[in-house]
Amino acid sequence: MNKPASVPEQVDAVVVGAGFSGLYMLYRLRQLGLSVKVLDSAGDVGGTWYWNRYPGARCDVPTTDYAYTFDPELDQEWTWSEKYATQPEILDYLRFVADRYGLRSDIEFSATVTSARWDEQEKRWRVTTGRGTEIRCRYYVMATGCLSMPKSPDIEGASRFAGQVYFTSRWPGEGADFTGQRVAVIGTGSSGIQAIPLIARQASQLTVFQRTANFSIPAHNGPAPAGTLKQLGEDRDGYRHAARWSRGGIPVEPTDVLGVTASEAVRRERFEAAWELGELFGILNVFADQAVNPASNDIVAEMFREKIRSIVTDPETAEALCPKGHYFGTKRPCLDTGYFETYNLPHVRLVDLRKQPIISITQDGIETADESFGFDAIVYATGFDAMTGAMVAADVTGRDGLSLKEKWAAGPSTYLGLMTAGFPNFFMLTGPGSPSVLSNMTVSIEQHVDWVAGCLKDLREEGFETIEPTALAESGWNQHVQDCAAITLYPTANSWYMGANVPGKPRVFLPYIGGVGAYRQACDDVVGQGYFGFRMTGPGGDRCRDGVIRRMQPDVAMVLDLVAAMGMPATESLSAADARALMAATAATRPPGPEVGEVTDGVIPGPAGDLPYRLYRPAGPSEGPRPVVVYFHGGGWVLGNLDSDDPLCRDLCERSGAVVVSVNYRHAPEDRFPAAALDALAAVQWVDANAVELGGIPGQLAVAGWSAGANIAAVACQLARDAGGPRISGQLLICPVVDSDMTRPSYAENGDGYILTTALMRWFWDHYADPADRGDPRAVPLRGDLPGLPPACVVTADFDPLRDEGVAYARALETAGVPVRLTRARGHTHTSVTMVGMVISGAPVRAEIEEALGDFFPSPQPQEFVS
Ligand SMILES: Cc1cc2nc3c(=O)[nH]c(=O)nc-3n(C[C@H](O)[C@H](O)[C@H](O)COP(=O)(O)OP(=O)(O)OC[C@H]3O[C@@H](n4cnc5c(N)ncnc54)[C@H](O)[C@@H]3O)c2cc1C
After folding, report:
1. What confidence category does residue 865 fall into, taking pLDDT thresholds of 50, 70 and 90?
2. pTM recorded for the entire structure
3. Which ligand 1 atom lies nearest to the CA of residue 391?
4. N or C, which end of the chain has less CB nearby within 10 Å?
5. Rounded CA gap, 363 and 372, in Å?
6. Ligand 1, residues 24, 52, 148: which to mutate, most atoms within 8 A of Cβ?
7. Whose C-alpha lies nearest to ligand 1, atom 12?
8. Among 579, 611, 577, 615, which residue's Cα sits nearest to residue 596?
9. Distance between CA atoms of 615 and 598, rounded to whole angstroms?
């Protein structure tokens, strides 16, 4: 029924977009008994599959997986004709879904949302369409798509061209006939790669303008994969469940084969198998380390290039088609059918825009730096303003007149990719900060829609009117999204994942790369903890449990999971000998640490016998003397030896350029307090006296240590000061033990579950020192005199029981006038910063340590210590 223009329509929820997301959202909201209005600029349902009708348009996730799964009956009713269905078939499917559930009656087509404003008074959104109508709603859901806002070609003269112009993302419904035409295709991303072979079949001449060569594998399309059909037939629910908790939204077993250590035969076998399989999640899973380790990635990339060179007959064209300059996977890889073979056709030509840039588009064609081309048609396959484009364009304004465009000027900021602070009751489906484009999107869409529907149900049942994230929860999630990306190679590429394809768009990694399963768990945890990080308001009052849902570095969490899965006995349940054997066995399986110039072993005369040491000399052009760092390993005064911290010593040596002398000291319980501390002092004295022989610069001596090693390093500084020498230039204390008081909050927070536990710390103390000695400054340097000590760098980790005593030591040193740098290992545990080659997120912390070490020694750079 048409309403008078002056009375705005009122519904419970407005949903923008009638693609996969919008249709399912409508279905779920109706189930809740809410009144809903769906608006879409398109003339029908389908979203992506309505607009992208270019020749060759298909999904590139097998359609057995790329479909709704919310209704088992629907799941079984529809049979896909091919492994990768064509655009018309997917559009038919979405039409079928719309009709099957009678969804169309709540959808208005050809209706573009031009603005949405939050009315704080009414606690409602006012949504305006291009037709000038206004609809008021309590909940506003943008199901506007990640790849729905075409990027304008921004090429000089584009409007001058007098021939036919096509955009792959806005292809005419009646299609295009290129028979006998001279056609240009600009762009070689997924759409271009799919369209080019088919356009080549019709065109008399096809010229492809390529800015970036892309990685593409043959799709080997055909019937739906028998293996998947069999699994679905046997256990449909199990298969779908596995997809929902997988990394990418498809049940693929992640490999544990490392590219860098695999044999050449294994490398080839795995790559060839993935090439033959023709699935994106297969080629992204050749090696476990290809997304994080450049050397492993290079192996995959080079095998790709070999394939291209073997297919394309003209060597110059082949070379231009070989992707270079970005790591494999860091830009969306493509699936193709005969793409590279197309360049062997006599009427197809590639123009490499890196060598021959476009100057302008003319009335007749395209002018490059070297040539003028005449064309009858130009096809733009130039991609999208991904993930944020459609949302920002729809002019959303939240509380206090803040627009989404303004809020996101420096990059999108969301909580879980679902909501954003300041915009109550505004939900995004597959928004930035969710797995979205890195996943099989139908799985991600269903998860988002289910979450939103569950949230609205809970709000209603608990009597709340509004929900929005807190600023803290949101910034914590943004940080987590970036942390996940930072351990991979993805942010190194100028990709649309980074917003790099749109001039002026901030460079921020947009999707969540932590995986579909991990993401689902985070969303579930938020709900399980009473909508943790959200503020809910209603007539009965407000509720807010503020905080950050994921504070741990993602690779640290992975290591903890691995350790838990190994089911090792608790160290404190073992004898010292068994604990040492266990530690040695685990140390043998970890990466070796970086190469250094030279490693030599020797002995230092200690107060009660020889102390073994290992000297690491940096590689490098200068054979001259270097500053020296005397290092003491961790292990609670009971465990550890020269091998246990070997990778860390290599890393310190390589990063700092200093000679590192790692000293083994007497261990408890055989030699209890103060044996280790006295050995540390003796070692420092001996190294100072023998600096020249060791290749060191006399007078440039620092001490360093981790955990209990940091304890004796700190004590050695106090003892050396009191003994009148040697002069120590600086002390690097990584997660130090500086007190025996276990009542600080970090013990309560982190005393269980992060490898170094309260129980283990007690076990260490019991082995090392009598209770009566646990107040002696040689055991607990925090209780010693601190003035006159060398400058310090104290490293503390968020999930370390020792965190607060480290902070207390840094503060106390500062109060005593000692220059201090306090370095926080954000999201780390007591052990993770030292896990060289295993925990990638530890590298930036160690880079800071290197800087601190540099500051200890005189250098041309100005010295600066910050507290
Ligand atoms: C060529 C192509 C192939 C793809 N293949 C795959 C694949 O194989 N696997 C995969 O997982 N993903 C694929 N994707 C991603 C694909 O976009 C999603 O899988 C999915 O279709 C997104 O559904 P959606 O409903 O969230 O968004 P869309 O399908 O993009 O729908 C969004 C709708 O919102 C409408 N809209 C936007 N703004 C407004 C506004 N202001 N007012 C009114 N309406 C508006 C648009 O008109 C559009 O219809 C592909 C994308 C493209 C472009």
Report:
1. very low
2. 0.94
3. 38
4. N
5. 11
6. 148
7. 441
8. 615
9. 8
